[in-house]
Fold this sequence. Notes:
The chain is mainly alpha-helical and 135 residues long. Helix content is 58%, strand content 4%. The chain is built from 3 helices and 2 strands; from the N terminus they run E-H-E-H-H. It has helices spanning 22-31, 53-116, 119-122; strands at residues 4-6, 44-46. The termini are far apart.
Amino acid sequence: MRQQQFVSKRVSVNSGNGMFGRKNFDAVKKVGASVNWGQNHNIVRHAQNGLGKFAYTAILFMLVVICGLIYLTQGTKTSNYDYELSAIDREIAELSVKKDELKVEQARLTSVAKTEKTEVAKHMKEASVAGYVAE
């Protein structure tokens, strides 16, 4: 059963002989309330129940779980960024190798074109196989 505390809405003391006579005045005086309760006023106040130990434990557990999930999420995000950065670094390395190969190819093609246009190359004759000496 709930704990009960007798309260009063009014502060005045009425020493009438009716319902709130001397007998009831002594009972009310013990709980520190007034004699004149009046009509349609609550005379019982129930004590408020707070959260129990189990509820506090459950709330604390849920807070710990939420903090753990936030921590794991942040760790996962950094790992994902690391994977993306390594993929980009790999792509950069591949493109730089391809760029070096293209520079070599460009140098080879420009050198052949330049040598064909020189004066020395214009006076050269076409090479043909004259024959081989037999042993």
